[in-house]
Amino acid sequence: MLKIAFHPSYYHIIPKGHRFPMEKYELLPQQLLHEGTIEEDAFFKPEIIDRKHILAVHDEQYVNDLFGLKLDRRAQRKTGFIHDEGLILREKLIMEGTRKCCEYALVNGVSMNIAGGTHHSFTNRGEGFCLLNDQAIAAQWLLDTKQANKILIIDLDVHQGNGTAQIFQDNPNVFTFSMHGGNNYPLKKEKSDLDIPLADGIEDNEYIYLLESSLSEILKDFNPDFLFFQSGIDIIDTDKLGRLNVSIKGCKRRDEIVINLAKELNLPLVISMGGGYSKEIKHIIEAHANTYRTAQYIFF
Predict the structure, then answer these.
(1) Confidence band, pLDDT 50/70/90 cuts, at residue 21
(2) β-strands 194-198, 3-5 pairing
(3) What are phi and psi of 246, to 5 degrees?
(4) Percent of the chain clearing pLDDT 70 (strictly above)
(5) Is the pLDDT of residue 231 over 70?
(6) 197 cis-preceded (ω within 30 degrees of 0)
């Protein structure tokens, strides 16, 4: 069964200062249930993550300041949020959601988090609506518990996974792959193991070609036993921030490529939702729902 991390706090706790609609965290589960893609028992409610898992990735002083609401206004502005206790609770739940997804993926082949994809969080700071890095924390937990030895993180959000790249820059057991808008945020890029910067306005065929050829190249020399997929849908042509021209159909094809890869190679896969900022919420929900439909269809 497809197991999906979802907690009401994902949408009940609205981060102060957030400029984009949060209703997708509520509407997406409703849509998946309404259309019959999944049943109610597909969802699991994550608890608060154990602090030790966070400290395996993030600096203790940063974590102490973050949890103690001691970060200064400049640091808070860089994250895009005004910090309060509710926001920190939400973050702890999201982190545990992705870590728990790893447990389900090891059994069922794939698991997904309705939230997450917080790839702009570095070891010692947050930025770009990311306070802690969920996929990095989960990947490090897998390595530390010896449930994985070689991890491939496929980051297909329109924004570079700069925090993830920095966290694992010296770790040969984690391969970071980011295919993102070359002229988009962040202005200063980090160095992933493989970065594919995309030109503004790229369309479906070229996007899919670059993705398939990049994955093929990675797998020539790196043999993962676990996959993470940051499945941001801000690559679609209706996105306010994306600057690319990939259709919703093309975005779905992207998902099919990654999820089929995991299935064909028998690699456990954890998917975090990532960004999506189209003007009309229906485009956001449809593009995100396609990722869940695809996982359900391919694996189950």
Answers:
(1) low
(2) unpaired
(3) -85, 130
(4) 98
(5) yes
(6) no
* CATH code assigned at 146: 3.40.800.20
Q: Taking a C-beta distance cutoff of 8 angstroms, is the pair 288, 255 a contact?
A: no
| Residue range(s) defining the domain that contains residue 259 | 3-299
Helices (H), the chain: 9-12, 24-34, 51-55, 60-67, 73-79, 85-108, 134-144, 162-167, 204-221, 248-265, 281-299
**Count of residues making up the chain:** 300
Please list the residues that pair with 152 across neighbouring strands: 175, 227
CA neighbours closer than 13 Å in the CB half-sphere of residue 214: 26
Q: How many domains does the chain have?
A: 1
Q: Does 70 have pLDDT greater than 80? A: yes
**Amino acid residing at 35:** E
Amino acid identity, position 102: C
Report the 3 state secondary structure along 167-214: HCCCCCCEEEEEEEECCCCCCCCCCCCEEEEECCCCCHHHHHHHHHHH
Nearest-angstrom CA–CA distance, 276 and 271:
15
Strands 43-44 and 3-5 come out as: parallel
State the average pLDDT over residues 82-110.
97
In whole angstroms, how far apart are CA 250 and each of 5, 28, 208?
26, 20, 8
What is the model's pLDDT at position 56?
98
> Starting from the edge strand earliest in sequence, which strands make up the sheet with 269-272, in order?
43-44, 3-5, 110-113, 269-272, 226-230, 151-155, 174-181, 194-198
Give the residue-averaged pLDDT of 206-235: 98
Q: Can you list the pairs that 174-178 forms with residues at least 24 positions away whose Cβ atoms lie under 8 Å?
A: 174/139, 174/143, 174/150, 175/150, 175/151, 175/218, 175/222, 175/224, 177/152, 177/153, 177/214, 177/215, 177/218
Token pair of 112 as six digits = 């997904």
